[in-house]
Amino acid sequence: MFEKSREKVAHFINARNSSEAIFVRGTTEAINLVAYSWGLNNLGAGDEVLVSLMEHHSNIVPWEITSKIKGFTIKYANVNSDGTLDYDDFESKFSSKTKIACLSHVSNVTGIINDVKRIAKAAHDYGALMLVDGAQSVPHLKVDVQDLDADFLAFSGHKMLGPTGIGVLYGKKDLLDKMSPFQGGGEMIKEVEFAQESGRCGISWNEPPWKFEAGTPNICGAVGLMEAVKYLEAIGMDDVLSHEKELTNYALERMKECSKVTLHGSSDLSIKCGIIPFSVQGLSSHDVALLCDNYGIMIRSGFHCAQPLHQQVFKLQSSARASFYIYNTTGEIDRFVEVLKEFEQL
Amino acid sequence: MATLEDYVARVEGTCGAEKDVIVVFKYEKKDEAIANIMKRAKMKNSIAGIIFELTFQDLSFRLYTSGKAIFRSIKDREELNRILASLLL
Question: CA dist A111 to A207, A270, B79, Å?
Answer without folding.
Answer: 36, 11, 39
